[in-house]
Design brief:
Its cofactor is Fe(2+). It is built from eight helices and 37 strands. The protein is mainly beta and 553 residues long. Strands 2, 32, 33, 34, 35 and 36 form a six-stranded antiparallel beta sheet that branches. Strands 16-17-20-21-26-25 form a six-stranded mixed beta sheet, with no helix packed on it. The longest helix has 10 residues. 48% of the residues are buried.
């Protein structure tokens, strides 16, 4: 699993300036160390007030174990998945956690060593085998991991712990108990994986993107899963491939972590982070981790592909921009004949291999050096004209939206060159850019919106919470020195009228304190703290999560 890389805003835009260099960064090594499970719910100590109307479960996913026996993982994304549950009810909070009982976890645990390869770690041959057997094992393909440590996704009302392979685990949000569902995507549709960031229509229809490697070569596939269940055991029955897109280079397809969706279109972003399939297929033979087959090619442009959600038709018009790397999109919506594509992106995609565990555990000048060699990620908007025809003039800006600085110029038949506009002011540079973007998804995804939330990155992980107001590109900030908040989750209030009526939930870690963990609750409108629930456990820094609201009686 590849993820949320911080990258530079240095580029062609006149507003861009060099990334801010920092010195004297605090060590965050405790945030990337193995921890124990908390399998039974424990109480927390509440400070301030947690609104009594928040009833449900905040679910969080991320790595929680980084070694087995004397073998250690190399990359942050390799750690074994730990599922966290915060239950909020009547102003009180309980916490529990457990390791995902994946095949990877169980096999590693039984052998007391790493026997399943992960993104940045190649498992070593079984020492109990003879030399010839160990030699032959190098010619075997790497077995795809079911270590679903990225996020929680929802299909047909059920929650699944998910990663980017074709394995998921159905999770009961009430208890975090889970069932193993081998190769769900492969069982119902012919894909070899899917993102951990699907999108949802209001009726519950789910869309995702996944690659396939078959007789037709490599394809990017748009997946659609209907909202209805045929029976209680139904998982992905009825899932179909809505459409397929041919990569620019079938042997070097793009890596992608997410995609965008408007009311009528799926937007697939083909970016210059590439996968060398030959290197990936032979990594075990070469004694290299899968991550060695991922590379950044800045000579390649980024291409936005539009797919009609109703017909599956792939637009012949391709929207190009300079080489950028994208891991998370913010929102996409259609208005006045344009599709606004809002994404967090950077001008460099080489940072993946800097997220080695040994780098995250550094301190002093060595830690500063790692951070300052990374690039920053910033929110940007691309404006895509939807009605480009043979009659559309070339060589002129087609963006007629007032006050928009983005440009889109038809270069030739079926090719439009796009240049972004910034969705931020200069002050965002002081907070290290923004990642882990979130919105009021239920009401404003695929629609015009005003606010988004995220983490500022003046460290290798998020060190502040940010709220962006797109009306005037102003920020609200929650920051306390030495505190590291997780991805913000927006929960709307039951009587919400305005877009930001609700709260922000974030799990905050304090590496300088033993068991310095708390669930933070902010008023989403004012961005002031309402309360926090102190949790007497140590917790690693995680990736993504979701809020599952309890049924109101």
């Amino acid at each position: 699993m590849l993820l949320y890389i911080l990258a530079s805003a240095a580029g062609e835009q006149p507003s861009v300036r060099p990334a801010l260099e920092l010195k004297g960064l605090e060590t965050i090594a405790p945030l990337v160390h193995s921890v124990d499970e908390t399998p039974e719910p424990i109480s927390t100590q509440v400070q301030g007030t947690i609104p009594s109307w928040i009833n449900g479960h905040l679910l969080r996913n991320g790595p929680g174990k980084f070694e087995f026996g004397n073998t250690h993982y190399n990359h942050w994304f390799d750690g074994m998945a730990m599922l966290h549950q915060f239950k909020l009810e009547k102003g009180q909070v309980t916490y529990m956690s457990q390791f995902l009982q994946s095949d990877a976890y169980k096999k590693n645990n039984e052998s007391n060593r790493i026997v399943m390869s992960e993104f940045g770690t190649l498992s070593l041959p079984d020492p109990c085998k003879n030399f010839f057997q160990r030699f032959l094992s190098r010619f075997e393909m790497i077995e795809p991991t079911d270590n679903a440590s990225v996020s929680f996704v929802k299909y047909k009302g059920d929650y699944y712990a998910s990663t980017e392979t074709n394995f998921m685990h159905r999770v009961n949000p009430e208890t975090t108990t889970h069932n193993h569902h081998p190769s769900l995507q492969h069982k119902f549709i012919a894909v070899n994986g899917a993102t951990a960031h699907p999108h949802y229509d209001p009726d519950g229809t789910t869309y995702n993107v996944g690659n396939s490697y078959g007789s037709k070569g490599t394809l990017y596939n748009i997946i659609r899963v209907p909202p209805e269940k045929t029976d209680a055991k139904d998982t992905l029955q009825g899932a179909t491939i809505l459409s397929s897109i041919v990569p620019a280079n079938k042997s070097h397809p793009s890596y992608y972590h997410s995609f965008a969706m408007s009311e009528n279109y799926v937007v697939f972003i083909e970016q210059p982070i590439k996968m060398d399939l030959l290197k990936i297929m032979t990594c075990k033979l070469r004694g290299k981790a899968l991550s060695e087959g991922i590379y950044w090619d800045p000579k390649q442009e980024t291409v936005f592909h539009l797919v009609d959600k109703h017909t599956g038709e792939v637009s012949s018009v391709k929207y190009h921009t300079k080489a950028i790397s994208v891991f998370h999109q913010i929102n996409a919506f259609e208005e006045d004949g344009f599709l606004m594509l809002d994404i967090c992106c950077s001008d460099d995609g080489q940072a993946i291999n800097n997220y080695l565990i040994q780098n995250l555990r550094k301190s002093g000048d060595a830690l500063d050096k790692v951070y300052n060699t990374l690039c920053r990620t910033f929110p940007r908007r691309f404006v895509l004209p939807l009605n480009v025809t043979s009659e559309t003039p070339t060589g002129q800006n087609l963006n007629t939206r007032p006050s928009s600085e983005a440009t889109c110029v038809k270069l030739c038949k079926d090719k439009v060159l796009c240049q972004h506009e910034d969705l931020h002011g200069d002050d965002l540079h002081e907070f290290g850019g923004l990642e882990f973007p979130q919105i009021n998804y239920g009401k404003y995804n695929t629609r015009p919106y005003r606010y988004f939330y995220g983490c500022g990155f003046r460290h290798l992980v998020g060190d502040s919470l940010l709220k962006m107001d797109l009306k005037d590109k102003t920020l609200k900030i929650w920051y306390q020195k030495g505190f590291y908040p997780s991805e913000p989750v927006f929960v709307p209030s039951p009587d919400a009228v305005e877009e930001d009526d609700g709260v922000i939930l974030s799990v905050v870690l304090i590496p300088s304190q033993d068991k310095g963990t708390f669930l933070l609750v902010l008023d989403a409108k004012t961005f002031t703290e309402l309360g926090r629930a102190n949790v007497p456990v140590n917790m690693p820094y995680g990736f993504h999560g979701t809020f599952n609201a309890s049924a109101q009686i």
